[in-house]
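Q: What structure does this chain adopt?
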Amino acid sequence: MPILCRSAYLLAALVMASCAPAPTAQVERAVMTTPTRTVPASLFFTLRNVSTTPVIVTGVDVEGAGESTMQTTAAHRMPGATATDEPMVMLMPVDSLVVSPGATLHLAPGGYVVLARRMQTVPVAGDTVVFTVRLASGATVRAAARVLTYAELEAALRDPTVPRVDELVVPSIAAGRDVYLSNGCAGCHGPDGHGDGPIASSLMPPPRDFRSNSPFRNGSTVSDIAQTLATGIPNGGQMPLFAHLADAERRALALYVLSLRRPLSEDTTP
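A:
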């Protein structure tokens, strides 16, 4: 290429670069949890507005997912609940998210999340998944999320600038019973976990009798149950999520419900 043409080409490229719109938002600390058979992958990240005007997020597209939806936790009164029954916390879809100028929006358990369903390739811990944040302005922000297990999530999302507060709960059966009784579990599963809570008859499928030794839908280990408590059962179940609990509290609750199982020799449940 002649020198004159090469110079003109470089000048044109510089002009185009200078005319490109300045970024209005940036993604930080993006992670995705591994999905289970019935629970979709959960995408969490921090979105920082680096502009002087509000940023409006209209959607998030996860590569390889058949469907990606933004959702948030909201109190929901279950069918048949009385005025004195505590509402359950469940995931509800949201159409848009607004980030004020200079502010940050944290997608984290207990708040906002992107659920990715029907992944073409099921991601496992250690993988990287690319996603695109769509803005109302027409701009997009592409980023990559590190895939990890749900047990690793709290440490990954913790803001390094915020001093860490030590866990107040040491997972144990006794601590799990306290969590069970103080978080509305008895409303569905009954005070002793027999599936006979005051609103049990209004639910379909009915709440689990924890005395049964039949497998839990998403796995029967402490880690499996703790993850189900964090995500709920959004496909074909009435189980709400308990994302507001710390992982130590969810593990304590898992230990408690597992302690209610009958010895195999006594279990007559088909």
